[in-house]
Amino acid sequence: MRSKATASIKTHKGTGHRKRLRDKYLTSGLSGFNDYEVIEFLLTLATPRKDCKDAAKDALKRFKTLQGVLEASPEELCKIDGIGPKNLFGIKLIKSVANRYLEKKLIKKNPLNNSKELFDYLYCNMGNKSRECFKVIFLDAKNKVISSETLFQGSLTASSVYPREVVQAALNQHAAALIFAHNHPSGDPTPSKEDISITRQLIFACKVVGITVHEHLVIGNNQYFSFADQGYIAEMNRKFESHK
């Protein structure tokens, strides 16, 4: 009888975790949570009877930040003891929902007048990725967002970003203007020589077909570099006009 009771206790060791965390959230919101508790809460969504605290702490230690955990691939997450294909469901779900929510907030808005929402979306979507991603935001004639798309992944070089594909994607979307963005996994948003060269090529290619480039943002660690704010976009446009 004792062995059965002991087995029952072990089986239900994590019972109540989801309720405890849910009640804590309802009482004080996320402000009352440590980052590891947020991860623990997400892990318990699919495994409510399992104690996920140690796994959550280990994940945060390995990936450094909450965003790092959310951006980690399923393969990387499954290397953490206590995290498997089943209970990583909550982590991947919440990241996908956040991306969609922030993207939908931009649709039909003018991102040139909503720079904070634009940065929030871009930082959530690409701010902590381990590889460089090149994203294009397509705008209509009134500078309202039509959609966004990640067109390229990998190092941002002349051989990895193709102006012809960018122009074709813009024409497919019936876009009148574009905003470019890419991330620097190092966290430093300072543009490289390649970043500047690619931006120049893209502006020239888009100008030929009558599409305006408003901005190119380089996303770093909770900061960004704006080609428009620093005068690069205007200067490149002037050079294009002078060579016509």
Q: Could you characterize what this model shows?
A:
The protein is an alpha+beta fold and 244 residues long. The chain folds into 2 domains: 2-95, no CATH class; 111-243, Cytidine Deaminase, domain 2 (3-Layer(aba) Sandwich). Helices cover 50% and strands 14% of the residues. It is built from 11 helices and 5 strands. The protein has helices spanning 2-11, 17-28, 35-44, 53-63, 66-71, 74-77, 89-106, 115-126, 163-172, 193-208, 232-243; strands spanning 133-139, 145-153, 177-183, 212-219, 224-226. Strands 2-1-3-4-5 form a 5-stranded mixed sheet, sandwiched between helices. It is elongated, with a radius of gyration of 22 Å.
Keywords, please?
2 domains; five-stranded mixed sheet; 50% helix; 14% strand; elongated
Quick description:
The chain has 244 residues and is α+β, with helices and mostly antiparallel strands. It has eleven helices and five strands; from the N terminus they run H-H-H-H-H-H-H-H-E-E-H-E-H-E-E-H.
Q: What is the CATH superfamily of the largest domain?
A: Cytidine Deaminase, domain 2
Shape: elongated
Termini distance?
90 Å
Mean pLDDT: 87
The amount of helix comes to 40-55%
- How many beta-strand runs? 5
**Strand order across the largest sheet:** 2-1-3-4-5
CATH class of the largest domain: Alpha Beta
Class computed from helices, strands and strand pairing: alpha+beta
- Quickly count the helices: 11
Q: What sequence of helices (H) and strands (E) makes up the elements?
A: HHHHHHHHEEHEHEEH
Radius of gyration: 22 Å
- Report on the biggest sheet: 5 strands, mixed
The CATH architecture assignment of the largest domain turns out to be 3-Layer(aba) Sandwich
Low-confidence stretches: 4-12
Strand fraction equals 5-15%
